[in-house]
Amino acid sequence: MIRYCILCGSVVSFSVPAGDNLPRHVCPNCGHIHYENPRLVVGCIAEHDGAILLCRRAIEPRLGFWTLPAGFMENGETTADAARRETMEEAGARVIIDAPFAMISLAHINQVHLFYRGRLASPEYSVGEESLEVAMFKPEEVPWEQLSFRSVALCLERYLNDRQQGIYNFHESQLAPP
Amino acid sequence: MIRYCILCGSVVSFSVPAGDNLPRHVCPNCGHIHYENPRLVVGCIAEHDGAILLCRRAIEPRLGFWTLPAGFMENGETTADAARRETMEEAGARVIIDAPFAMISLAHINQVHLFYRGRLASPEYSVGEESLEVAMFKPEEVPWEQLSFRSVALCLERYLNDRQQGIYNFHESQLAPP
Predict the structure, then answer these.
(1) Does A81 touch chain B (CB under 8 A)?
(2) How is residue B100 annotated by DSSP?
(3) Residue B1's pLDDT is what?
């Protein structure tokens, strides 16, 4: 996918740099190596009064399906910052982060999904630009058949299970291609 | 830092794309948006017979200082894969991963450091290309003054503390600029 050097605009080659063991897009002119690495998607389970905040996606992929507020972590923020920001952007809600809850590797799409658990600072939320609808769901109301992503379903399952047990663990997992 | 489009080689602009709220390097010719996101550095505390595996760095930054085996996560792998690979590459050691142990955000350098804890599959290790030396350290032998990175020191401190308490937790933290 990388054809031109970001620094000098030369056509890059795809070769193993000295001291490396994987091929990279390397610039034959200025020597810049274009590393590509997995991205962190960070989100949050925000609870209030026994119900969980979900957003119905207004954007692809999975437009119209329900999700936990989550998105790509940005440069210059911590993982917890990212969870709070996404919850505000997608659901207009201020969340108090309690702890990291789940980390799921999706090697086939070069992503790591990280979910925190927390509580709404107040029972206020609104529909963000990337959402069609935002609502609170009691455990028995979760729209399992209309969830956007497998990582979201996995996270919610573990969360409701832990909640029932009365103890929250940190869950590490991985998802292979469907 | 990004001057040219990776897809078509045009000079990019730095502007806020439609529907976004942060400026990105956008190609005025083909429309490609060059997102930049934090990178995951994944490593491992590998224990054997009460001692911990450390590597003395043969590369900058912090050449000559001691570190836990760790490095940038690669596309196509899980976080646990990355921890195993780095332990093999830097210390020639096969590690059995037990659990995620610490996750440290370094917002000022756009990194998240993730450390697992585990055990050597056998008491065998060797000096990898990026290491000057590899050795096992008992808790009282850890070269605190010669550790490479603050995240490594933080992780080792928490680990030895948890080990003494007899219970391992998952530690989330952040480090501001020194």
Answers:
(1) yes
(2) E
(3) 87
For A39-174, which CATH superfamily applies? Answer: Nucleoside Triphosphate Pyrophosphohydrolase (3.90.79.10)
Whether the model pTM is above 0.90: yes
* Residue of B5, B35, B77 with shortest CB distance to A72: B35
ipTM, two decimals: 0.96
Mean pLDDT by 10 residues, chain B (178 residues): 97 94 97 97 98 97 98 98 98 98 98 98 95 98 98 98 97 96
Distance of CA A68 to the CA centre of its chain: 9
Distance CA B11, CA A96 (A): 42
Tell me whether residues B78 and A107 touch, CB distance under 8 A: yes
Contact B107 A72 (CB under 8 A): no
| DSSP element (H, E) containing B136 | strand B131-137
Nearest CA in chain B to A114: B103
**How many Å lie between the alpha carbon of A7 and the closest alpha carbon of chain B?**
5
The token pair at A9 is 């605009």
Q: Do B76 and A8 touch (CB under 8 A)?
A: no
The CATH class for the domain spanning B1-36 reads mainly beta
